[in-house]
Amino acid sequence: MPTQSIHPPPDNWNARNLLTVLEVAEWARVHPKTVYRWIKDGRLEAIQFGPRTFRIPEDAIGKFLNKNGYNKSVADRKSNGR
Q: In the sheet where 47-50 sits, what is the strand order?
């Protein structure tokens, strides 16, 4: 039986914390199907490990929020009197 060569992951692999779809859904307070839709529509970056297994890089959440107009934090709103 031939051995398979295993390639090391990219250098930045460990630098990215990967979240599950359920973790993102709980954080965003949406249904997991919504997160899957965001991934399918290309709105949220995700890494696919299998037919139904996705992981979302933690830094992709910030990019997603900024791209969708959520670029101000709650602290910024409070300081502006909102």
A: 18-20, 53-57, 47-50
Residue 80 pLDDT more than 90?
no
| Single-letter amino acid, residue 1 | M
Distance, in Å, from the CA atom of 72 to the CA atom of 6, rounded to the nearest integer, reads: 43
Copy the structure tokens of residue 41: 């529509």
Closest CA to 20 of 68, 54, 51: 54
| Nearest C-alpha neighbor of 61 from the set 44, 36, 40 | 44
Q: Which domains does the chain have, with CATH numbers?
A: 18-70 (1.10.10)
Average confidence (pLDDT) over 52-81 = 76
